[in-house]
Amino acid sequence: MRKLLRNLLRSRGFQQFAGLLAAGFLWLVWRTNRFSYDPEDVYDIVEPQMPVILAFWHGQHFMTPFIKRAEHRGKVLISRHRDGEFNALAAEKLGIETIRGSGDHGSAFNRKGGVGAFKEMVRALEEGYNMALTADVPKRSRIAGLGIIMLARESGRTIMPFAMATSRFIRLNNWDRTTINLPFGRGALVGGEPIAVPADADAQMMEMLRVRLEATLNDATRRAYTKVGRPELEAGPEYEAGHA
């Protein structure tokens, strides 16, 4: 029975259905939450610099497809892991193209398809696509990795950190504190200070910019939860599960 269930969950038909269902639910969440923007002219700031690299935290990613306006071109990096298949299908249903692979530059970089994905992201930016990806080191929540800094150095494109939050959600007790946003509340899109990486950045400068990105994303996340009336949720390193 367990094997039958596992095979069902991995089947293409079930994943297609789950992706369609997830996309529909996220669209409902977007349409029924009253979103505010910080800064209010965030699109006026970002659009002249497009294409850009959009950075956000893992586990806070479900609403990110809606940052894209109809006239924007965008792609998102999603892992090759089977759990990523649902995210990829949902993103594609919501009009976001996907690149499959890892943004991590650790020891598993080649095995996880990182080299090919990195080249594809650079190519997408050259072709005018905004590139969205999580900044975390895999399995280490809220610790920014060097992969996104390397992408900015190689492509010459600016990193735009941001966070999206809703006042109603369910938060899971897993490694990235996955937040499932819920409808009928308030939402916030908060942009952080843009980060540019010089083409000649050495290891010391790249580490400094990595730390800055980490701090900027944490600050944007705190501000987003404050704007939706839930400041206590991002006040420290410990987070509770199951808020709704």
Draw up the topology in text.
Layout lengths: L1 H9 L1 H21 L1 E5 L3 H5 L6 E4 L17 E5 L3 H12 L3 E4 L13 H13 L3 E5 L1 E2 L2 E5 L2 H9 L3 E8 L2 E3 L7 E3 L4 E6 L11 H25 L17
Parallel strand pairs: 1-11, 2-5, 2-8, 3-4, 3-5
Antiparallel strand pairs: 6-7, 8-11, 9-10
Helix pairs in contact: 2-4
Show unreliable segments: 107-112, 235-244
Task: Give the CATH H-level superfamily.
Answer: Glycerol-3-phosphate (1)-acyltransferase
Order of helices and strands: HHEHEEHEHEEEHEEEEH
Q: Helical residue percent?
A: 25-40%
State the strand order across the main sheet: 1-11-8-2-5-3-4
Q: What's the pLDDT, averaged over the residues? A: 87
CATH topology assignment: Glycerol-3-phosphate (1)-acyltransferase
What overall geometry do the principal axes of the alpha carbons give? Answer: globular
CATH secondary-structure class = Alpha Beta
Which structural category do the helix and sheet elements fall into?
alpha/beta
Record field, number of beta strands: 11
CA(first)-CA(last) distance: 33 Å
Q: How many separate domains make up the residues?
A: 1
Alpha carbon gyration radius: 17 Å
Largest sheet: 7 strands, mixed
What's the number of helices?
A: 7
Going by CATH, the architecture would be: 3-Layer(aba) Sandwich
Q: What share of residues are in beta strands?
A: 15-25%
InterPro entries: DUF374
Domain DUF374: 69-140
Protein name: DUF374 domain-containing protein
Pfam family, one: DUF374
